[in-house]
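Hey, resending since the last one bounced:
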Amino acid sequence: MTKPDEPTFEQALQQLEQIVQKLEKGELPLEESLRLYEEGIRLSRLCHGKLEEAEGRIEVLLKDARGEPVLDASGRPRTRPLSSRDEDEG
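The structure tokens again:
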């Protein structure tokens, strides 16, 4: 979950893109470049962690032999958590 002072994935990604643009210009003093680089690494790790969390929450639809979704007793498609085996096949 997102902590109160932690940016969302989209906010962190936008901040990271802005940092990359500033660093690519090469016009900043060394200390400012290092500070932005460190912040970029922190944001990159935050984004990576949020993506891993999202991947863990993805569910795979169960399908029958014809490729049709398997339905539960209430008529909703049955699912199961995404496993690393599914990721390798996908």
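The first strand starts at residue 59 and ends at 61.

Sorry for the duplicate.
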